[in-house]
Amino acid sequence: MQFQKKFFKIIISLFVVIFTFSACSTTKNASNNPIKNNQNVIKVNYIDVGQGDSELIQVNGKNLLIDAGPNESIDKLMSYLSKQNIKKIDYVIATHPDEDHIGGMSSVIKKYDIGEFYAPKKLTNTRTFENMVTALKSKNLKINAGKAGMDLDLGKNVTCQMLAPNNDKYKDTNNYSIVLKITYGESKFLFTGDAEKISETEMLSKNFDLSADVLKVGHHGSTSSSSKEFLDKVNPKIAVISCGKNNKYGHPHSQTLTQLKNRKAQIYRTDVDGSIVLLSDGKKIAKQ
Predict the structure, then answer these.
(1) Tens digit of pLDDT for each residue in 116-170?
(2) Which CATH class is domain 40-287?
(3) Spatial separation of the C-alpha atoms in residues 141 and 117, rounded to whole Å
């Protein structure tokens, strides 16, 4: 009888230890993955397309693609999109007609069912731009001229507004860039294309709410963008720079990096980190 009591106590003790250990393990795993990728989050993919830009936003079962990288990264882009099991891209935005932003557009248009297509009112006579237009015509898609004040419908709990361009005559093509702000719950994301200081000044003068938790840094981190005044208004917690390894332009510039570091922003770079995926449940933002 004494032996049975002792044995029973040992079993109980072991059970308590095992249960406690399991509970601790579960808590630890949850803290490492605070946000799970499900239908109640926004998923923002900053796709590594080398020296170029491409972002995929997924929320409420809808997909928004901003830019499509350079010609040399078409296969890389299409492979990434295929892995997301996308059937339809509800909105596609070509921020401006530079090759490093629209190189893969014709391939995207040909493969996917596209809802609406947006680009600024700026034409170029490059082969890449012509290929994009030809692909759009083949699918009977029109180009909606994107400009400040336009809104896109990404479903419940989301606002998606264009903040630029604010003009239709610029010397530099970069300043035609469509700038987009997406707010999901309390989480704010700003996508700036290659908008330079002229466009930034216009947005500031319009008193737009530029504050954002995450900033896709303008023009690959060049000094032509990211003015002090603009960064002061955005005040990002996270800065994402899309650029290619050892690119000939020296992007990102040390001056831009210093400005971001001075503001204690967490910096991610596609040339260093590869594709970057951020998730938000409307309150917290976490890197996947």
Answers:
(1) 999 999 999 999 999 999 999 999 999 999 999 999 999 999 999 999 999 999 9
(2) alpha beta
(3) 7
